[in-house]
Design goal:
330 residues, alpha+beta, Glutamine Phosphoribosylpyrophosphate, subunit 1, domain 1, 4-stranded antiparallel beta sheet, 9 helices, 20% strand, globular, binds N-hydroxy-L-asparagine
């Protein structure tokens, strides 16, 4: 058995405490823990689900130059959408059971504006299409062929998103396919990103190719405002990763922001959000759920119920704070 490994970066001890509690959380999700220490005076800041250094570095570059949180999260998550080695997002994403790569994404700004695309095919950057929906239509969400048509009208190029690697894996999967769509815990990189800019405004984005080998037509939580992402500039923001059906059932990200409004720290709110999901499943823990959250003060929180969760923050002082964990069977 491998040992649980926790790598603490010396830059910011407070974040290390949060990460340490994440390690515990993956082992025993119901265990009670103290609230993590605050990370004060850390504006601007960006955090993301999973270990996505290129994405957070890009987002940080935008914030550091005085750019908006909205631009920061869009630019950040685009890195993963374009990265074909990330098979949970954008180009290179794993297809549904019929071999279609279908993408879900959303974005939300500090004024409560939001845009979303679901079941989008043939376009590498769904988050940017979602932003166009937000900024250039009276709507919030576009789906499927309509979303693709809209994207093309806005100048996005159509491209085949199914890489040889993902195609081969899908063909292999079909040999022994079970009807149940799977979530690949070891390689599970939907990106949710939250940022505060120098003006103190919050924004967030979330983008995914969804569950590998899902039933054609399935849409998860990631493009659903309130479930996969929610931003309230008065309070904070949250985003989710994991089995989307579970997140939708609890309107997870909205719940976490509301819990922060009621006085919980981001960490406490993420833990409570996960607890509600566990409760709905009568304590059964055979799936993965992770939330990250940030509040107006720049405190962050993250919690998951499956080992392997990492997150990364960049602070205004230029610290690269990278608490991370290896995947650990207990
Ligand atoms: C979904 N929440 O479609 C997404 C999956 C995910 O990393 O987070 N994958 O349900």
């Amino acid at each position: 058995m491998k040992r649980r490994k926790f790598v603490k970066n010396s830059g910011l001890g407070a974040a290390g405490i949060i990460s340490a509690s994440l390690v515990n959380s993956c082992a025993e999700a119901t265990e009670k823990k103290d609230a993590p220490a605050a990370i004060n005076a850390l504006k601007p800041i960006v955090i993301a689900t999973w270990d996505v250094p290129n994405a957070t570095a890009k987002a940080w570059e935008v914030l550091d130059k005085g750019g908006s949180a909205l631009d920061s999260v869009e630019q950040g998550v685009r890195m993963e959408e374009a990265d074909i080695s990330n098979q949970s997002v954008g180009k290179g994403g794993r297809p549904d059971r019929d071999g279609n790569v279908t993408l879900d994404a959303c974005i939300m700004d500090h004024q409560g504006n939001c845009g979303s695309v679901v079941y989008l095919q043939n376009i590498v950057h769904p988050v940017s299409v979602a932003r166009k929906v937000m900024e250039e239509t009276p709507h919030v969400m576009l789906a499927g062929k309509g979303a693709e048509k809209f994207a093309v009208e806005k100048g996005f190029q159509k491209e085949n998103l199914l890489t040889d690697k993902s195609k081969l894996e899908w063909e292999k999967w079909k040999e022994t396919a079970e009807y149940k769509p799977i979530i690949n815990i070891e390689n599970h990189d939907t990106i949710g990103m939250l940022a505060i800019d120098q003006a103190g405004n919050l924004s967030g984005a979330c983008t995914t190719s969804g569950m590998a080998y899902k039933i054609a037509g399935r849409v998860g939580d990631s493009p659903i405002i309130g479930a996969g992402l929610f931003v309230d500039n008065e309070v904070g923001a949250a985003t989710a990763t994991g089995v989307g059906e579970e997140v939708v059932r609890t309107v997870g990200s909205f719940l976490i922001v509301e819990l922060m409004r009621q006085g919980k720290s981001p960490q406490q709110a993420c833990e409570e959000g996960v607890r509600r999901i566990i409760e709905k499943n009568k304590g059964k823990l055979d799936f993965q759920i992770g939330f990250i959250a940030i509040n107006k003060e720049g405190q962050v929180g993250a919690y998951c119920i499956q080992p392997g969760f990492t997150y990364r923050t960049y602070s205004s002082e230029g610290h690269t704070n990278t608490p991370s964990m290896s995947h650990i069977p207990a």
